User: Which sequence fits this backbone?
């Protein structure tokens, strides 16, 4: 049985697919040859699928599989033979988002720092909680942030006052991150160690609820099931 990690958003432009690829890449790089796949649930855009094609063309490793899915049910069925399935959700897909979130071990909600982004993100988290998604599963990620430390701190304080978890650090808007994506790479694969370290720290904070002994047990079960 795989870990299911959903990356969802109420609106586009918040770095949702970029965060999904970060999570997939870091699990793929973990010791033990974890079998990881991204389910691109936004079939109209299929940006993660296109990213995979660029990654394969440029021969980057580790190899990360991406498949476009119309139905969450099919993606979850395919997850049975994996160690990790990252569901890259479509924006505004309320029913799909709820279905994904209920099935997930972690629900990641990326958001920028403007109120126009923070409010929809918080509203989504509250809606998921109201519909039965455990609050401990939900984590905000500050993404595409600017250069103002004060602005990032204010956004973090705003999110933390909602009593949902907020991942450590932030993922800034940087040319190096965009260029990495253009070449089929994740946020931890840029040419700049300081940016890679920021992304790695954020990933570790996202998945900190998955304790290592539990992860090893679940991973072993997944391999046996396969």
Assistant:
């Amino acid at each position: 049985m795989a870990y299911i990690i959903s990356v969802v958003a109420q609106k586009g432009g918040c770095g949702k697919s970029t965060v999904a690829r970060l999570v997939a890449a870091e699990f793929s790089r973990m010791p033990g040859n974890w079998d990881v796949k991204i389910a691109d649930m936004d079939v109209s855009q299929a940006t993660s699928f296109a990213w995979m094609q660029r990654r394969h063309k440029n021969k980057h490793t580790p190899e990360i599989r991406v498949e476009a899915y119309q139905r969450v049910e099919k993606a979850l069925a395919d997850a049975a033979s994996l160690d990790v399935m990252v569901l890259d959700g479509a924006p505004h897909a309320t029913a799909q988002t709820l279905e994904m979130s209920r099935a997930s071990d972690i629900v990641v909600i990326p958001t920028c720092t403007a109120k126009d982004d923070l409010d929809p993100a918080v509203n989504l988290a509250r809606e998921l909680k109201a519909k039965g998604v455990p609050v401990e599963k939900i984590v905000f990620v500050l993404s595409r942030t600017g250069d103002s430390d004060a602005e990032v701190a204010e956004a973090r304080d705003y999110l933390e006052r909602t009593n949902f978890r907020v991942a450590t650090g932030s993922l800034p808007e940087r040319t190096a991150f965009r260029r990495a994506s253009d070449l089929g790479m994740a946020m931890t694969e840029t040419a700049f160690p300081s940016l890679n370290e920021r992304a790695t720290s954020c990933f570790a904070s996202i998945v900190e609820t998955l304790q290592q002994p539990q992860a090893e047990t679940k991973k072993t079960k997944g391999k046996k099931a396969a």
